[in-house]
Design a protein that fits this description.
Length: 124
């Protein structure tokens, strides 16, 4: 959601990675999708998938201009906090009210959810 340098840590036993603001094994430049789309001068964005272990709402906040301008289809995994589905839906709807939000049928926990979005009308 903002330009910042994050620290990436790789667990040597599990090879799982984590990103944070301090510590870690090496620096990772973090950029909002909106900045990447602008820097690359993209004339379309069709699809975005977020499955970033609890940072989905932050990433969505860095995608407002892209959602408003291009209305890409989205798949967002939201299950780390009980209010993640509502928070993500609120961000997406505020960025572009043309989205229709759909939940997946898969629920491993009471609040596990992927939500899918499509726009009623596509951008030219």
């Amino acid at each position: 959601h903002s330009k910042e340098t994050l620290r990436f840590h790789v667990d040597q036993e599990s090879w799982a990675g984590t990103v944070g603001e301090e510590g870690g094994d090496f620096a990772v430049p973090g950029l909002p999708i909106d900045d990447i789309v602008d820097d690359l001068k993209l004339d379309r964005v069709d699809f975005i998938k977020f499955d970033i272990e609890g940072a989905e709402r932050h990433a969505l906040n860095g995608t407002w201009r892209t959602l408003a301008r291009f209305g890409p289809d989205l798949v967002v995994s939201v299950y780390h906090r009980p209010d993640d589905p509502q928070a993500a839906q609120k961000i997406v709807a505020a960025a572009n009210p043309a989205y229709i939000l759909r939940e997946s049928d898969r629920r491993d926990r009471s609040y596990y959810m992927n939500f899918f979005t499509v726009r009623e009308t596509r951008s030219p």
